[in-house]
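Our consortium's second objective concerns turning raw sequence data into structural hypotheses that experimental partners can test. To show how far this objective has progressed, the report includes one record in full. It was chosen at random from the queue rather than selected for favorable results. The single chain below, 95 residues long, was entered without modification.
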Amino acid sequence: METLVWSIAHGARHATVGEDGSLEGDPELVELLRRHLAEPVTVYRRGTVPSPDVDAADAIKLRPGDGRYVVARIRVLCADDPGYEIVGCGWKPTG
């Protein structure tokens, strides 16, 4: 089995975030990401960005623990704070 992992940069700091919520890397950045990964995120039927024809009833609030949460939260991380940059994405063996 493999886990999807994103490499995140914020200035000179680097960390990785797994789709399972695992965090590794620069301790300060890990702490910042840990706080972000505790915030709810809103998604829509067609992604994380509302389109002009989106009905508010189509919005779904995801919270930590939902299997789709980390993917959605990482997706909007850079939109919420341009200081964050997704610098890589890949698979990491688990187990």
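The partners drew two points from this record. The CA atoms of residues 20 and 70 lie 7 Å apart. The longest strand covers residues 84-93. Both points have been shared with the crystallography group to help prioritize constructs.
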